[in-house]
Amino acid sequence: MASDKSQLASPLANLPPSVLAQYPAMPPPPGVIPDLTSPNHRGPELVVCGTVFLAVALLAFTCRVYAKVRIVHKYSWDDLTCLLGLIATIGFYTGFVWGGVKGPFGKHQWNVPVTDIMDHSWTIPSFIATPFGNLAFCLIKLSFLLFYYNMFWPMRWLRISVYISAALNVAFYTATFIPLFVFSVPKAGRTWFEQLISPEFFKNQRLAIPITAVGFGIDLFLFALPIRAVSKLQLPLRRKIGVITIFAMGLLVIEMSIGITCVCMPLIARMFSHHGFSTQKLRSWLTHSLKSSSHDDASSWQKMDPGRDSSNHDSERDLELHQPAATYVRPDDVKAPVYSNL
User: Fold this and answer.
1) What is the mean pLDDT, run by run of 10 residues, along the chain of 342 residues?
2) What pLDDT, on a 0 to 100 scale, did the predictor assign at position 296?
């Protein structure tokens, strides 16, 4: 497929824009008619979703920095890789927003005229997003591996697994980053569009499937690696399931901002634990809020219906007031291994 496109690339560069505007950038699937005049454009919607995810990632990283500086007072290599991964994610987001708002990002390519991909609103965002996205994936996955190393460092087999997988992760993404960057930069005397339709650039498309397949394989490994380690911890089954669930969210690294958020979650949990916030306290607060809301609704109903007997509600309220208050035990007062903070 890529070779067929590359053979058509040279004639396209010599056609006038009025003719190019009548051809889609990509052949449509069988039975689909291209819509080059008013296609469905999901670019703004994708930009909104990306903005929300990035905002959550920035908040999570801010909590991570707070926990490291004010609570843990100790830094590690995964802090650096997480920071660099966030910077790369912002770089990808910049190109993504540019192409989604000003360019044809968010449209099916068979609904995009060839003239649209000749414009800088397509070529430059594509150049920005592709290498930054590749770099972000590498750094975020490396952050997960370094976190596993710091968390389970007494386990020799896991340390060796992290060494090997981290080396393979860096080698793989470096080997793919270089050709993606080299084949995307216009050669001397070429425009961005000429480079985009050049045979060299179509080599990037040949890398798309193996990059995706290997990347997904790394995601599965990131999920499977800590399961055995967690199973050996002296934790209740419920706590083990909770820890594995946090690690399972690492599979969502397919979206860079979500990956940043997931790798920061253990330190966010540590921050909440340090300040006496727990799921037990959250449940108590929600229960109290719901009861208060129900009492307010009952009072409002009684004002609307003065003849309604309120003795039963008063007795229930008296019983609740005489119930002994639940005792909350701070996590810091319980002697448990460091893994209980997850």
Assistant:
1) 46 67 79 81 84 93 93 90 94 88 80 77 79 88 89 87 90 82 72 68 71 81 80 78 70 75 87 73 60 56 50 44 42 40 42
2) 53
Contacts made by residues 3-11, CB under 8 angstroms, sequence distance 24+: 3/202, 5/197, 5/202, 5/205, 6/197, 6/198, 6/199, 6/202, 9/197, 9/198, 9/199, 9/202, 10/197
Scanning the structure block, which residue is given the tokens 């430059």? Answer: 124
Q: Which two tokens stand for residue 20?
A: 């190019």
Question: Whole-model pTM?
Answer: 0.69
CB 96 within 8 A of CB 76: no
- Sign of the CA dihedral running 278, 223, 170, 207: negative
- Residue 40 makes CB contacts below 8 A (sequence gap 6+) with 107, 108, 111
Backbone angles phi, psi at 246, to 5 degrees: -60, -45
Three-state DSSP state, 113:
strand
Q: How would you label 94-107 residue by residue, b for 16+ Cβ within 10 Å and e otherwise?
A: ebbbbbbeebbbbb
Residues composing the chain: 342
For 134, the token pair is 């590749």
Per 3-state DSSP, the chain is made up of helix, strand and coil in percentages (nearest 5) of 75, 0, 25
Q: What are phi and psi of 256, to 5 degrees?
A: -60, -45
Cα-flanking dihedrals φ and ψ of residue 99, to 5°? -70, -30
Structure tokens at 42: 């999901």
What pLDDT does 139 receive? 92
Angle at CA of residue 178, ends 174 and 182, nearest 5°: 170
